[in-house]
Amino acid sequence: MWTLIKNAKLFAPEPLQERDLLLVGNRIAALGDDLSLPSYAKGEVYDLHGHYLVPGFIDAHVHICGGGGEAGPSSRTPEVQLSQLTRAGITTVVGCLGTDSISRSMEELLVKANALEEEGLTCFVYSGGYQADRMIFDTLRKDLVLIDKVIGAGEIAISDHRSAQPQKSELEHLAAEARVGGMLGDKAGVVHIHLGEGKRGLSPILKIIEETEIPISQFMPTHINRKETLLEQGVEFLKAGGTIDLTAGCDDFEPHLQVPFVLKALYEQGLLNDRVTVTSDGNGSLPQFNEAGILVGMGIGSVHVLWRDIREAVLRYGIPLDTALRTITSNPARILQLKNKGMIREGFDGDLVALSDDLMIEQVWAKGRVMIRNRKPVVLGVYETSLASHLQTVETPRLVKG
């Protein structure tokens, strides 16, 4: 399969000006000027003059097989569907478990990751959940070494009334397992930490870094923009050499804690570097608790907020496009050691997003295959296709002679 993309303004994520790009199979074969398809090749040609061409987005925190459950069985969220991800420009996704690791399991998470791969995306998983002991094998080390898709531990909950309240020694052991397992499996072995609104914040992790030999790079704390004091801790963590992950789509947060404004603040301080990422928390539940810990509301996360918030940071707050793009492309690819991902380079995977001049998602390619064309999905998941066909049958009344 050959695809020639011409006259696009490339951001790889660094700006490369207007250039042609050739996809062969699932890889980027060539970048240059005045490229053409060989006479023997059959393929498609896209003229993207006036459009931006950027790397496919990496969402490193999605509840791909659903989450939730805090309000009982009926509050369990559904699993994500292929076109939800591709419409959002996401070509690589990392799945995780959340609060519910009883009706959800690592086996289910792994099978869903394989399903998304079969449907055309690239998918990895964290081993664990809010509880640190939800592995497939009996140790995290084994999961990292023996299961290709496992790239770290997560999302392990701390400073949250829903967490398993892991002791410092448990977190130390988990981080050590992640580090050695990552080394043996040639993976990042990060510990993806869920941060709640508890008063301890990042303190349990900071103590481990201070008192042990485990480096700060082993931890990837998320939801760092959940509250002001936590964000302040996160900024100090970033200054010390750590990685922070911001959660998009938090529209009920104070404006200064929402992703576009936080990116602006970090940029103005010279801190919007290659250790800042943004994720969606897609298909996770969004429970709202009052000060007494009583559930008062429930929502569901959407993967579409990932690009929505990045786009707003560029258009509203003037963050350079290449700088903003790094938080969902090259940064997570580097931190999570995702080979051939996150950049437009010869030999890299053909994961691409074409954006209009006002930065709306127009076309999406995943591993060289067009998934979105003219803002509409051309590839649907197995049951998305079956459901559409079923609904068409149901909604078409049968004519009965009488």
Automatic annotation (TrEMBL):
The molecular function terms of the Gene Ontology recorded here are: beta-aspartyl-peptidase activity; hydrolase activity, acting on carbon-nitrogen (but not peptide) bonds; metal ion binding; metallopeptidase activity
Q: Give EC number(s), comma-separated.
A: 3.4.19.-
Residues annotated as signal peptide: none
Annotated cofactor note: Binds 2 Zn(2+) ions per subunit.
Annotated Amidohydrolase-related domain ranges read 52-370
Pfam families attached to this UniProt entry: Amidohydro_1
Spell out the post-translational modification annotation for this entry: Carboxylation allows a single lysine to coordinate two zinc ions.
Q: Name one GO biological process term.
A: proteolysis
UniProt cross-references to InterPro entries, sorted A to Z: Amidohydro-rel, Isoaspartyl-dipeptidase, Metal-dep_hydrolase_composite, Metal_Hydrolase, Metallo-dep_Hydrolases_sf, Pept_M38_dipep
Establish whether keyword Zinc is in the entry: yes
Record-listed Zn(2+) 1 binding positions: 61, 63, 281
* Main localization category: cytoplasm
Q: Gene3D superfamilies given for it?
A: Metal-dependent hydrolases, Urease, subunit C, domain 1
List where this protein forms a coiled coil.
none
User: Which residues are annotated as active site?
Assistant: 281
Binding of substrate: at which residues? 68-70, 99, 130, 162, 226, 285
Q: Give the location in the cell.
A: Cytoplasm
Q: Which UniProt keywords apply?
A: Hydrolase, Metal-binding, Metalloprotease, Protease, Zinc
Establish whether keyword Zinc is in the entry: yes
Q: Where does Zn(2+) 2 bind?
A: 194, 223
Spell out the family assignment given in the record's similarity comment.
Belongs to the peptidase M38 family.
Protein name per its UniProtKB record = Isoaspartyl dipeptidase
Which species is this record about?
Answer: Desulfitobacterium chlororespirans DSM 11544
